[in-house]
Amino acid sequence: MPINGDFYHGIEVSEQDIGFRAVQVVTSSVGWFAGTAPDADPALFPENKNVLIYTRSDAVGLSRGTLASIAVNDGGADYTEATVAITGGGGSGATATAGIVDGAIDSITLTNPGSGYTSAPTVTITGDGDGATATASRTPQGTLPRAVADAFAATADQVSPLIIVLRVAEGATEADTLSNLVGGVDAGTGAYEGVQAVLAAPSDVHLDPMILAAPGWTHQRPNGEPNPVLAELVTLANRLWAVVYADGPNTNDADAITARQDFESARLRLIDPWRRAWDTATSAYVDVPPSALAVGMRSVLDQ
Question: Which pairing describes strands 275-279 and 284-288: parallel, antiparallel, or unpaired?
């Protein structure tokens, strides 16, 4: 361009050495997860709404560690009054009352689900009767808490990946949950639902997700047909110029090849087999969907 009558050809560098300068996020480094989290705080993680997780502390509300119910195993006999004590399990605050019918404990009602429970606590029933026992159940964590933890574990917490999460309702069956994830557009409000809500991420969190995944929900092939959630993600990726990281079937090579051949898109990265990891809830090694770890690694590499 002309400066003082001269012309400069090639690259010109302009350095700003005063004032504040914004640091831009590399678009290709933004990961996006869709999944379930029944135990999430609905105020922090409303359903079908994109929420940005920048640090581990941002994900605390995804799994509150509450109790879902207490089932009576043996009602015992000769009770006219009874007290329920809930201990252990790593949490606190859960309280319950016992219902008595004809001298036996007929039901136990949670009056406070508590929080912080990492395993099922012990339920003890005391009173003037004898023999009653019961078992507590935690609220299911769903797929999102583990997915976010795996994404952060991918970098050993040296660098934080940029992850957007979208929570959907967990259905009564696996097929129902797949339908919730496929989503669509709410006829009444016009709001996006399910994985379609990735299109609302720029307005929700002011970022454009470019690495899409639904850990734990892309390996199924209902009735031998292509996975419906993965089909939607691939379509969205083609529209957004994004990539999709998907979980393979975790069975054998032939099944993995079949699953990959369901989709011709070059934007799909199918990962198989799954990885083995220690599960603290069951104190055993389990197979874990690998897509979340891959998204975390990709997010950090692109930053």
Answer: antiparallel
